[in-house]
Amino acid sequence: MISRMEVLETNQMIQESNLDVRTITMGINLMDCADPDINKFNENIYNKITTLAKDLVAVGDELAKQYGVPVVNKRISVTPIAIAAAGCKTDSYVSIAQTLDRAAQAVGVNFIGGFSALVHKGCTK
Questions:
Q1: DSSP string of the chain?
Q2: Which of 3, 48, 63, 95 has minimal Cβ neighbours within 10 Å of its Cβ?
Q3: What is the chain's pLDDT, residue by residue, as a tens digit (125 residues)?
């Protein structure tokens, strides 16, 4: 149970110390989007992100309003693309980066992360 003193202390931190929630992040697994056709892969990831994260910004804003604590950034983190796209028959992942960017813009998030590779065990082609 939250005490009255804790509520007052939190309100004071919000007003005087600019307390906020820096970030909320939704993690999305893209492994089931895999396809050898890069265009189909792009379509799959765009559809999955825009479907699952369609309400992320609205929910973050609602939580901020409900609790009176600003949520500064709304983000999405996806499976590292080097893993999710490993089966694609392509020489370039540029279209995937563009698709991620389009999906992020469509749902209104501040940041989408995952255009990355896990290189601590060596690099993939």
A1: ---HHHHHHHHHHHHHH---EEEEEEEE--GGG--SSHHHHHHHHHHHHHHHTTTHHHHHHHHHHHHT--EEEEEEEE--HHHHTTT---S--HHHHHHHHHHHHHHT-SEEE------BTB---
A2: 3
A3: 778 888 788 777 777 776 666 789 999 999 999 999 999 999 999 999 999 999 999 999 998 888 877 888 899 999 999 899 999 999 899 999 999 999 999 999 999 999 887 767 666 56
